[in-house]
Amino acid sequence: MSDPFFQPVSGFDLPRFAGVPTFMRLPHVSLDDPRIAEVGIGLVGAPWDSGTTNRAGPRHGPRQLRDLSTMIRAGNGATGVRPFELVNCADLGDVPPNPADLQDSLDRFTRYYSRIREAGIVPLTAGGDHLCTLPILRGLAADGPLGMIHFDSHTDLFHSYFGGSMYTHGTPFRRAVEEGLLDPKRVVQIGIRGTAYDTEDRDFAESVGIRVIAIEEFFKRGIEDVMAEARSIAGTRPTYVSYDIDFVDPAFAPGTGTPEVGGPNSFQAIQVVRELRGVNIVGADLVEVSPPFDPSGATAWLGVSLMFELLCVMAEQMAAAT
Amino acid sequence: MSDPFFQPVSGFDLPRFAGVPTFMRLPHVSLDDPRIAEVGIGLVGAPWDSGTTNRAGPRHGPRQLRDLSTMIRAGNGATGVRPFELVNCADLGDVPPNPADLQDSLDRFTRYYSRIREAGIVPLTAGGDHLCTLPILRGLAADGPLGMIHFDSHTDLFHSYFGGSMYTHGTPFRRAVEEGLLDPKRVVQIGIRGTAYDTEDRDFAESVGIRVIAIEEFFKRGIEDVMAEARSIAGTRPTYVSYDIDFVDPAFAPGTGTPEVGGPNSFQAIQVVRELRGVNIVGADLVEVSPPFDPSGATAWLGVSLMFELLCVMAEQMAAAT
Amino acid sequence: MSDPFFQPVSGFDLPRFAGVPTFMRLPHVSLDDPRIAEVGIGLVGAPWDSGTTNRAGPRHGPRQLRDLSTMIRAGNGATGVRPFELVNCADLGDVPPNPADLQDSLDRFTRYYSRIREAGIVPLTAGGDHLCTLPILRGLAADGPLGMIHFDSHTDLFHSYFGGSMYTHGTPFRRAVEEGLLDPKRVVQIGIRGTAYDTEDRDFAESVGIRVIAIEEFFKRGIEDVMAEARSIAGTRPTYVSYDIDFVDPAFAPGTGTPEVGGPNSFQAIQVVRELRGVNIVGADLVEVSPPFDPSGATAWLGVSLMFELLCVMAEQMAAAT
Amino acid sequence: MSDPFFQPVSGFDLPRFAGVPTFMRLPHVSLDDPRIAEVGIGLVGAPWDSGTTNRAGPRHGPRQLRDLSTMIRAGNGATGVRPFELVNCADLGDVPPNPADLQDSLDRFTRYYSRIREAGIVPLTAGGDHLCTLPILRGLAADGPLGMIHFDSHTDLFHSYFGGSMYTHGTPFRRAVEEGLLDPKRVVQIGIRGTAYDTEDRDFAESVGIRVIAIEEFFKRGIEDVMAEARSIAGTRPTYVSYDIDFVDPAFAPGTGTPEVGGPNSFQAIQVVRELRGVNIVGADLVEVSPPFDPSGATAWLGVSLMFELLCVMAEQMAAAT
Amino acid sequence: MSDPFFQPVSGFDLPRFAGVPTFMRLPHVSLDDPRIAEVGIGLVGAPWDSGTTNRAGPRHGPRQLRDLSTMIRAGNGATGVRPFELVNCADLGDVPPNPADLQDSLDRFTRYYSRIREAGIVPLTAGGDHLCTLPILRGLAADGPLGMIHFDSHTDLFHSYFGGSMYTHGTPFRRAVEEGLLDPKRVVQIGIRGTAYDTEDRDFAESVGIRVIAIEEFFKRGIEDVMAEARSIAGTRPTYVSYDIDFVDPAFAPGTGTPEVGGPNSFQAIQVVRELRGVNIVGADLVEVSPPFDPSGATAWLGVSLMFELLCVMAEQMAAAT
Amino acid sequence: MSDPFFQPVSGFDLPRFAGVPTFMRLPHVSLDDPRIAEVGIGLVGAPWDSGTTNRAGPRHGPRQLRDLSTMIRAGNGATGVRPFELVNCADLGDVPPNPADLQDSLDRFTRYYSRIREAGIVPLTAGGDHLCTLPILRGLAADGPLGMIHFDSHTDLFHSYFGGSMYTHGTPFRRAVEEGLLDPKRVVQIGIRGTAYDTEDRDFAESVGIRVIAIEEFFKRGIEDVMAEARSIAGTRPTYVSYDIDFVDPAFAPGTGTPEVGGPNSFQAIQVVRELRGVNIVGADLVEVSPPFDPSGATAWLGVSLMFELLCVMAEQMAAAT
């Protein structure tokens, strides 16, 4: 079992509505804290949404996700995994953005995630909009391009917006491929749907070898079949998992900026994560939770439930690798 | 490709939150505008709910639907159809109701839709409550009774309410059959469910030959089978499509006056529209979106997503017929 | 047909938004009313939530459920059952709690339900949190332990909270088994999911013979198969039905204190009730609707729809038994 | 002291969230109830808003006002009046509207209030929109025109809307003067403000002698001075009091269809009612509370607080007159 | 009277909930429209909030303000001014921002307002956050520094944020003074309050001669006295009026990103605008309305009410100058 | 200046939406932390509402207050006080309640506040309901009865509820006087209003010498005069300040369980705190903020603004005493 210091506070001892809210009631250990060296998985908030092209709000995501995460208990009722006993987990706090300067924020994020990688910590990030994933990949892909399993209703593969702006939440994976952070042959995008500007993003995906699985195919083939393919694409090499909450149908996740109807329900949303067992995950994120569009926190509750499922898979894998 | 004048503003050029909101960012062309003659499909708002027997609100539907419709892009990601390139589409504005005089409103609507028909425009209407469909049918059925494919949780086939009131949102299709606007043999109602006053509506349906498909049958047989039957009932002659948002489960469409639990999800809600390909549609509507009961606009977002799917089917058919 | 006095007011006569709201627009007949002797099924409000360990609110459930219940009509559209014509139904009002004294409330509830049982009335209760079910069982299980079919995402079988508190909404069925109110061999819990403190509750279930059907098994086997087993477990002897609204996915039932994602949709939520036909039901409840967490009333609307389905099954059974 | 039957349930005995909600927890005594003859002041719901020209919703007012009214206690903390001990008060239920037929509703209301007058009951009505006051006056003004003290941000004195519709919530007092229900010389309108279509209403007021006190004058002179004039205008003969909740600033009363900024605060809103002492009130109403635009019930809470203040003044006067 | 083309649609003719929503139901005349030459006052939307340091949202302000502005009628009930009859007014649409590039947006705004100035139009802008005012001033101050009367709870005079970012909604007037767009001796800031980082902004104000009137002084001296001083400071030369909605107390204007309690009420908020009569206004704005933080639109309703009061003062002055 | 460790994080460095939310962005120092000895003023959360007789929710108060408190800056704009530079302030975390056992919670609280007193820390508590103040007083009044300045709309002086329950949020000060924790001659209650059960509380106040200032007297005399009397009643001996957020009008503080209309506005709410300068404050609280009834956080924002004003007065006094 991991260090008692790293165990979450139990709801049997302190009611869930009490206490300063850290992610899953874990200890708060910043990168400058001496105990940082003991951390295996770091939960990080990325409160930034300067890449958002329509409805802003994900900058408030980490705080609401922390709040709702106090309802997470220590064990996974379905799989039996108890992640906090397998790996030392901690809340690392938030990476500090500069909301008034997009490029400065990109640099701050990159430096922050480089430090995480250098500390040997596997990050599980709570966004923030999807542009956050670009500097995370810049920080993590130091040893060569990563694979990626990507759940989303959008490809985020466009070239630019508004007459040339190359850094928005619709472009991070175009940039990541161009910069050599991702190996397109090892990238799969699952759940794509909604109306389309044009086919530029799909054409790019095809040209570089990214596999795009539209929602119609997803529902037709079923989760097990699709995820087997996803694992096969990612292979055994280091892989990043990026989960945009708008992958899920907006009835289950209303609090997001660019919802697309016709998506998976919450049970399916969980199942795809459980099917990640065995993937060599070097980092993961849950992005685009936008509290101003869901004051009740329902979306954040689904979001932290998904983060916990990701954590279980990551902890199990790390414990097995030890 | 259709006239550039009739192309919607792109979110790549002007952010989606900017600009005066017309339906799908199309040009606003009123019936008195010289360019009305070039319009093939007219998007019309019907802000009227005097037929509502319980919770009013659909009078505010068109405005919220216009607002949310700014998030629609130019192409259908699943079917590839780009309706605005196939047919000249425009926002015709709202048909003017008289909220203080039900009969006057019925007459105003009838005259308005007669003009639309005479102008050779196929209307796609955003309600308003379901009584709106009665004067629309009065305006469109000039050449004999129409067929109808009707998605709803209620039959709207009752005779009268409150001691004799014959014009409410629970009676439009009873009136339409009585007035010879609909050919009951070519009418199918899909998704019926919820508690029942009595069987008067079902008895009427049976007596005149309207086909009623309850939600249990719908789920059991599946969408493809049910919609094949629906297309067969409608046949090749002119058919109207009426889509009450309460067809969809209230988790996906909370903003409506008479929700009934146990309905289709949003993916299924879309699929039934895509199965309308080939139907000879002379008009369609999406009704009963009630913004006061869904301030977040989630219901309107589903509503405009469905309107776009309807538009794709209609445009494809019209382009093929040319 | 039952007494006209016991028929609900029709929405054809008085609009659904009018009138003092009783459950399903039934007459209000308190336990002290002379006509109480004629009542077959009593709808009771249990406005109490002192057992809630996290987010309070179900104390407000009965009032909101009454409000939304005015949208229920007299017949079941799917099964054709018209319960108010089969059995005299009435709104008995609320059992009076003492929100400042947990043990006093337990005693008040027990006495109240003892009177109901003695009056030969079958209670259908609207909670309140799940601790309410404990004193209901104390009142009803006078002739020996009951069976129970229990829909929930939690087992509510824990021993104690907060250093020894034995009466919370996480413990009622542990107490009920210990007190001999339930026969654990005739208890089945359906829909269990979510994160877990530990396996203490599951271990207890196994040790006493309670059957726990997790949500994964539920989805895999399907409703008909699971419910056939449930009926078999309950057998023909007296059985209580307890329905925690958090059995349903929070997209369909957001207004509850401890939601767990990944649950059934509203159609499935209804179907399990319809599969209770033939069970010897001596009482039922619908608990944990929490209006402060769902001001729109969507959860209460689902709740009263489920109460109506329960009522149909109960009335049909009682009419058949006569 | 009045009959114990007519005393409200105390929050010391039954918590305020418990019980079927009647107005101020009073007994429900319909016009057909034998005990109706003992009632001195009748609280009536008028769930009707067919006269609303913009945002509907007041049809839901009575139910929400009843809900919030359970927080009213038995005594007036400031004046010491305990109305329920002075006069027998009861909740008479709702006057039944026909939401699909405006003229039928007007007739139903008129007959209902005629019966109230004939029963010797003084009505305190919870609207509904302001058109409700017209048939109330028709029912009450059997012995000649009444005076009126009217709190509102609008005069409601327009002739017609939408090309001739003479019955909307913007016209009731024009009709009432024309029909001889009100003596314009004994009518005062207080709090008028907001933008104006034109001066037609003000011109009419001036031509018939209605005194209009704009909000600027109200604030400048102060409540005591203005209300002294109001009492002087009403004189000692029978007077009706009509209180539109939009008299109050929308920060205090957001839930209404036509709010106008720049109004009185809630303390001032109460003070004007207390200054009605001594007026010969034969009926009063509180209208235009619109729950769909204030789900939290804040407006209804102010509304019932004002109804209680009205009730205190009315009860004190009736008790003094005995 | 002005051209009939420029008259708003009346609510007597078309209900206020109907029609495509332009500002105050005025015609939509873009800068490229031939009729732009006839426009005297242009209402402009500035949907941009990239300068926001905490809670974003004002990018959605113009759309919600247009929606609520449909409730504005043609005349000012208090002052009698009918602005649309005095000056040709039009909705010019929105100035197009680039949400992904702050400097590009500043340039786009500057060019847009330069064109407005060159067209001889006086702009009344609906923001957007307060950084919008900087490029507006750049566009308008072509002939030398302007005076400014500024209503706000913050001075917006800071030098920089987040380690050097000089363009945020906390810095526009520091920049405007530095760039020579404002004459600090002719600038007055009214309503300042709330907690403070430090005194850097106040020190700057003092050093350049900007007059800061804190809320305590405002309440103590009264509106007439304060506004007389404000008019005196502005003098007779060209003056800009900038109105941050957070000047008003958050009970009246909750929908804003940085509310400060203890502000004026809505009546006072209006009175200060009426006291601007006689000021030589060359442009005005109402900024910081943030719809995500006020879904009900109460803040936008106050905002458009204030815009109408500004419009009345501006139109009266322009008509007098002709 | 105080220790840099105890300075809050600046919004100039880290945006206000970022970071784990502690009270006012202060360091989190629990009672077991070695640095606790350096703390002068401790901000404590009291997440408990078991004393609430109607609408629960204040258990969630501390978390929402912490969230909103991140918008507090380091200095008081009006008084110039910079409390964090005068006294070492820290967030002590939450006192742990037992939501299932009222007496156990009372004991836990008493022990916790005894420790605070023994550590020489002056507590500023964020409730929680008003029953929390009883065990706080038990913990603090070790050296004899305290004086109290109490802002509230209720006296909270009742004897018991629900047939004898002596511990609710309507009874704490009755108990405190009976237990000798308060010296009634040095207690003043300000702002009392609303409807009344009876005069039992007022009679008790009079019998023991508590001074009750009703809201009518408060408005009539003005803040300066009333507060001068309050300071005189409290005198120079140790005094506790208890601030129930329902002292403020519900338009400014909607999120509370028992609102009473007709209260002070937010400017007045602040002014009364500033008038506490010179009082010998040994502890203070801000109670009854109920997030479920104000999801937007407006009430919490007012609440933390008031806590900051209290902190300024307390810090100034402590610094002066050194």
Automatic annotation (TrEMBL), chains A, B, C, D, E, F:
Source species of the chain: Microbaculum marinisediminis
Alphabetical keyword list: Hydrolase, Manganese, Metal-binding
Cofactor(s) the protein needs: Mn(2+)
Any single biological process term in GO: putrescine biosynthetic process from arginine, via agmatine
SUPFAM superfamilies named in the record: Arginase/deacetylase
Note on how the cofactor is bound: Binds 2 manganese ions per subunit.
Residues binding Mn(2+): H130, D152, H154, D156, D244, D246
Listed GO MF terms: agmatinase activity; metal ion binding
Name the UniProt record assigns to this protein: Agmatinase
UniProt cross-references to PANTHER family, sorted A to Z: ARGINASE/AGMATINASE, GUANIDINO ACID HYDROLASE, MITOCHONDRIAL
PROSITE patterns cross-referenced by the UniProt entry: ARGINASE_1 (PS01053), ARGINASE_2 (PS51409)
Coiled-coil boundaries: none
Record has Repeat as a keyword: no
